[in-house]
Design goal:
heterodimer, A: alpha/beta, Rossmann fold, six-stranded mixed β-sheet, about 30% helix, globular, B: alpha+beta, Ubiquitin-like (UB roll), 2 domains, four-stranded mixed β-sheet, about 45% helix
């Protein structure tokens, strides 16, 4: 049973990079068994069998493609500022609807939230879809990561590792 | 005579266009007083920061101008630099470039036809709402777009901002077997494109025609991608090397993007409608027949029918991709060697949204001394405003909400790509009763 963690964002837009940075941190830890990145690079690690790490821009239509072939997906993306930068919130889709004002848009106003909505409408959701939102502070061109968001990267990575171990454990598979 | 009320209509977030812009329409009674397509996205200074970079770096840098049409920027750049350096490319490389462009046209046109423009015609706020009632259609659009993505990913190393294009060719040429893996999906895509054309031909089009000057590339044997003279329906017929003698860019106060005009003539239109009207006889039989079956004839002067033309160009791009794959033999070397020299080169290619002009001046080391880039949306900006002047006049008696909707739809006829950053266009419609 595979679990795919997809880190979304734009590394040139300040805190919007956070999803991609989480994916890169997980990748650097060598936890995944197979990685298919937008850079076209493949590597192989061993620590958590069945875990895949993917980087993505967050553009809706190709994002839906990225979860094809895996029944367990965790999306990691920046959320809009609301006074608590670095705060991590988790949505369990489709039970939880993604709030419209929380997820910044991507190309042509179709981003992560729109990908999830479109997939809901078209019955293209994976069996399990968790959306990990990390609140950003600023999204200017070329801006650095906010300190609070930088700290949240490590917190999110540790939480995701724990979650990944649970979700890919054989006992979990057997229950399915 | 009663005083007609002043009307101000604002569309705060017209999505489904690329980049940051606003639209301002002022009406006095039912007379249009002013139309401004305001592009307030900050200037990005690409032409300035290309200076001093080596010409071999340019294809990868200009690909970053746009996430939707990076290949167009790469193709115009490599052709301009190759013309400066006097580089002859291998015929197989030429074929591969056409295939590369097919991929971009397929993904860009599929995105626009299905996800960005069709909701306007069918009365939905966006593709997500449309999918609730037209799931099979949206699925078809997503799969078509994916077929284009596959070509781009194979040819370019990745789907977005591909990295394989080089001055002289490609860093790596694909094998025949790798290309053949695309065939089955492209055969499906060709059939799906024909179905797309039939579907969009049945949409309801506003009765609106304009007397445009259409401008596109024209090649003696091919529907244009990378090569050809720049022609128009009013006698323009020039090489790209004299583009700047015939076209000029004007700064207008309300836009951070320059307005391109034909010297002494004014606005013009580039893009699918222009290409179709000027190159109909170069389309393969299957695309010509599809157009006739859709009741589409050149010249078509109704910009709302551009959605049908894009579908016809989808048919062409799928058919052309299959032809290239059939005829492809790997080149002896993926790219030609180049020798730096002080020189100037200009080229234009056909981006999905229309003519894309590049000019580079190189020094003896191959470093960029100056660069000029004129994207399609810059060329269409003035024409979009003129369309709205005339179109709003036709519908001025309608309710504000309807005018707003129709204006957004009219802007999207051009699939404007203001930038690849954020994506809002605000419409401000003001009625003055005095």
């Amino acid at each position: 049973m595979t679990l795919r963690i997809i880190g979304c964002g734009n590394c040139d837009r300040g805190d919007d990079a956070v999803g991609v940075l989480v994916a890169r941190r997980l990748h650097a830890l060598g936890v995944e068994t197979h990685v298919v990145e937008t850079r076209g690079i493949e590597t192989h690690g061993v620590e958590i069998p069945g875990l895949e790490i993917v980087e993505h821009s967050g553009e809706s239509f190709s994002l839906i493609d990225r979860w094809t072939g895996s029944d367990r997906i965790i999306l990691v993306d920046a959320t809009a500022p609301s006074g608590t930068p670095g705060q991590i919130r988790v949505w369990n889709v489709p039970a939880d609807r993604l709030p419209e004002d929380v997820f910044p848009c991507s190309t042509h106003a179709y981003g992560v939230r729109e990908a999830v909505e479109l997939a809901c409408t078209m019955n293209l959701l994976p069996q399990i879809l968790l959306v990990y939102g990390i609140e950003g502070k600023q999204f200017s061109f070329g801006a650095p990561l906010s300190p609070q968001v930088e700290r949240a990267v490590e917190t999110a990575v540790q939480q995701l590792l724990e979650l990944a171990r649970t979700m890919t454990a054989p006992a979990q598979v057997a229950r399915d | 005579m009663s005083k007609q009320p002043a009307r101000t209509i604002k569309v705060e977030t017209l999505a489904r266009v690329e980049g940051e812009g606003a639209l301002y329409v002022k009406l006095k009674g039912d007379q249009v007083q002013d139309v401004k397509l305001k592009i307030y996205e900050p200037p990005r200074f690409f032409e300035a920061f290309l200076r001093g970079r080596h010409s071999s770096e340019i294809p990868d840098i200009v690909a970053r101008i746009c996430g939707i049409c990076p290949i167009a920027y790469q193709m115009s750049a490599v052709h301009a630099i190759e013309r400066a350096l006097g580089v002859e490319i291998d015929p197989s490389v030429r074929l591969l470039r056409r295939l590369f462009y097919c991929g971009e046209w397929i993904e860009s046109h599929a995105l626009h036809v299905y996800m960005l423009h069709a909701p306007d015609f069918l009365g939905y706020p966006d593709a997500i709402a449309m999918a609730r009632d037209h799931q099979a259609i949206v699925q078809q659009g997503l799969r078509l777009k994916k077929a284009g993505n596959r070509i781009v990913a194979l040819m370019g190393g990745r789907e977005i901002h591909p990295v394989s294009a080089a001055v002289g060719g490609f860093y790596k040429a694909p094998s025949k077997s790798a290309l053949k893996d695309l065939v089955e999906e492209l055969k499906w895509a060709l059939d799906a494109s024909l179905a797309t054309a039939r579907w969009v031909a049945g949409l309801d089009f506003p009765d609106f025609e304009q007397d445009y000057e259409f401008v596109s590339l024209s090649h003696p044997e091919e529907y244009p991608f990378n090569e050809g003279r720049i022609v128009s329906n009013r006698g323009l017929d020039i090489d790209a090397s004299v583009y700047e003698e015939n076209f000029t860019e004007q700064h207008v106060q309300h836009s951070n993007a320059l307005h391109s005009v034909l010297r002494g003539r004014g606005s013009y239109m580039v893009g699918p409608l222009a290409r179709f009207n000027l190159n109909f006889d170069k389309l393969p039989d299957v695309a010509q027949q599809a157009a006739r079956d859709c009741g589409l004839h050149a010249p078509c002067r109704n910009p709302f029918r551009s959605i049908v033309v894009r579908a016809i160009e989808l048919v062409f791009a799928c058919h052309e991709a299959l032809r290239v794959i059939r005829e492809y033999e790997p080149p002896s070397a993926p790219r030609a060697e180049t020798t730096a020299r002080a020189s100037t080169g200009q080229a234009a290619t056909e981006a999905p949204r229309g003519l894309l002009y590049h000019r580079y001046v190189l020094d003896q080391e191959g470093l960029i001394v100056s660069a000029k880039i004129v994207p399609p949306t810059s060329q269409n900006q003035k024409r979009i405003e003129e369309d709205l002047w005339h179109f709003v006049s036709q519908i001025a008696t309608r309710p504000n909400e309807e005018i707003t909707w129709k204006c957004e739809q009219a802007v999207r006829n051009y699939d404007p790509c203001i930038s690849c950053a954020t994506h809002f266009l605000r419409l401000h419609l003001e009625r003055d009763s005095t």
